[in-house]
Structure prediction request, 576 residues.
Amino acid sequence: MSVTVIKPGMLSSFQDRGREGYQHQGIPVAGAMDERAHRLANALAGNTGDPATLEITLTGPTLRFDLPACFALAGADLGATLNGLDIPVHRPLVARAGDTLAFGARAATGVRAYLAVHGGFALPPVMGSESTYLRSGFGGFKGRALAKGDQIALRTPLAEGRDLDALHQALWNLRIYLPGVVANKRRESIRFLPGMHWDAFSDASRQAFTTAEFRISPQSDRMGYRLAGPALSMDAPRQMLSEAACFGTVQVPAGGEAIILMADRQTTGGYPKIAQIATVDLPALAQTAPGQTLRFQQIAMEDAQRLDGERERAFAQLHEALAPLRAVLTLA
Amino acid sequence: MNDSSEPPSSARPRWRILPQGDRCIVVSFGDHIDADLGRTCLAAARKLRDACWAGVTDVVPSFAAVAVHYRPDGLDNGLTCASLTDRINALLAEGIPADAVGGRDIDIPVCYGGEHGPDLADVAHAAGLSPDAIIALHSQRRSMVFMLGFAPGHAYLGVHDEPLNIPRRPSPRTAVPAGAVAVANRQTVIYPSRLPGGWNIIGATPLTLFDPAREPASLLQPGDSVRFVPIAPEEFDRIRKGQP
Prediction:
């Protein structure tokens, strides 16, 4: 018994927090573009640990539940409906056998939504992770994005004969408070730390990066966001040795057009690095669509790490606060 | 650039700590490619990996640096750039024995030239040597795996002798077959899968460099010592048929 894909949507792939510990073998981390929303969806579906969620991009899929399940959506509101009726994000919900989850009923507010099911999808871990690495075709569901007709089993379906009306009511009665730092927030500017080669860039380039507006080009994907804006250059161009790259590294190839490395980035890169996006703002970046504009604002290391740590603490507190939800779901 | 035939330097390695954002620290040992520097990076990476610090997710050596990726744990006294910098400095100050690279000895069979090595003649011409001399240069001395990057299982090996200090091709190929063995700038790369690439292809190995279902998935690991073993085309076909 499983979830059946009626329509796959634009790009729907399973992602967790990424394939860590293998970058020295050249294996990209991949993982959720908006890790915050991925974790939130899991928490609201009563999950512990880090099972993969379905990362849904702009045009969502149409999915049929062939068995009862508890699920939750987080991240962008892509206009989700269950059997044609609007459903909210950030709530644990019940699907019955035969129910259809679809998207697109309302204008999207963001780019990526995350669908978590209670207990997780039954996916084989590859190198300790359920994340799909699309470029090399491994991880997730058969190493690829969802396709029509796919059937994805659930790891721990709800107990048979369960009173779904009572479960629905119990979930609906739960009061769930989401701290601001774990919820969606649009930002006027994306905060960054100086990159490895910040000082080698020209004054004009550093000035432009901090003040100008950049547009996310249509040639942007899970691997990287290309930025259209003022050309950036170093005072004295030089060859760089290939070395480690991170989620949010802003590198500048010879053409002067900056690229922000995203979830599917290569493990190493050989271009000059002007900046590094603060981790706390990567989710906001991941929810910004091609065609939209961005500004960047410098932040101090201490502040970036304090905000990153505050989000971690907020997730820990949310996890504790959701103990009643997990208790409801594990009732026999 | 030091010649790798020189004896290892007895000078204590120096390093600089360069934060790369709020979740990565790069320990930089220099800005050029040579065998001693590479061994220092690999030994430092091994030492940092063996420390198994909670919150450190990846230790990634490259030609002249080691990247330490970490995650905050949400604790008040948790991992920060400042605290991790102190720990890295203290650990590396204990010493970085360059003989502690810890790699394995691995033979990589290579069918040089012909259809498997379309650029061998160009490389020989650029080096002013015969194709056989290039094969000898490439296969008679061991090479070290400096780092993996660009794609899963994609290894950079070196440092080769000066005649193999030739630039990459002026225009890259859009698709290089899996197993292609290619040289440039005194280094070798082996393409683990069909990829775009601008290096000079002098041969191919029938071995599978990367298989996500295998443990470890990558045939080559940082620090491995590789001997390229010339094989005939028939041997290439025989080995390739014998594996998935």
Notes: The radius of gyration of chain B is 19 Å. Chain B is about 25% helix and 25% strand.
